[in-house]
Amino acid sequence: MLIILVLVFCLMRMVPGNPMYTIQADANLTEEEMFILQEKYGLNGTIFDQFWAYIKRVAVGDWGTSYFNGKAVFENIFARMEPTILITLLSTVITLILGVPIGMYCATHHNSKLDLVLSSTSMLFTIVPSFCFGVGLLYVFAFKLQWFPLYGYQYIEKVGLLESLRHVFLPSLAIGLSGMAGYARHTRSQMLDVLNSDYIRTARAKGLADRAVYYRHALRNVLSYMITMVSGTITVNLGGATVLEKVFNIPGVGLLSYSSLFGKDYPQEQAILIFFAAIFVFTNIFLDIIYKVLDPRIELD
Hints:
single chain; mainly alpha; MetI-like fold
């Protein structure tokens, strides 16, 4: 986390442009006005001075305030978390629901025509970016068929969970379709390895039905492996939400990150990226524990 904090701080200051010009609409600032603004926002020292001042504030829980609305950066993040959380979780569920069964089917029908078709199709879903799926889904299901809202988001407190899910379903589906292919390929590969194991041959020799062999014996080992991919999927889906929230004009953390980056709102963008990194780190820790539950042979130490 400390390394990430340093990298994010440095990378933000490599973005071209001066944030003072985005704070102040009048680009014709005098040198005195520029100095006053830089002093106000702590940008008048060297990068080392700025970093040291930032670290001291973070150490006491002060992550800064946004340049544009003057609110605490985490207050802005939490105010926009709801649609981003829904998109991330729903897209992850879609990825698993589609990817794992397709991979299992391809493995259990190895080298069949349908296996070849599904494997080839999954490569197409890997190549096409999620925002392309998003634009296509938006045109067909929102603009033409009008089954889903065309843009925006309504909060759960106002319209209820189901209506809120309608607003985020298309971007979630776009992200889920992009991630589905990876899960299908990995599930297929792992399933083929498991099906060639000695204990699977023993289970079949005992006369167990294929369904029992696949779901009771093989699937558990495959799921243990797939759990390790979930943390990466959540992080990737958070990144995908940034782009899709822009496409669908959903006011989530992704759209806030987009506007903060191009507006050079250093404190806000730094807080968002570090917050996402923390989600990734702690998700990994949690899933390591779950992995131990699924596979008792793993030692936590």
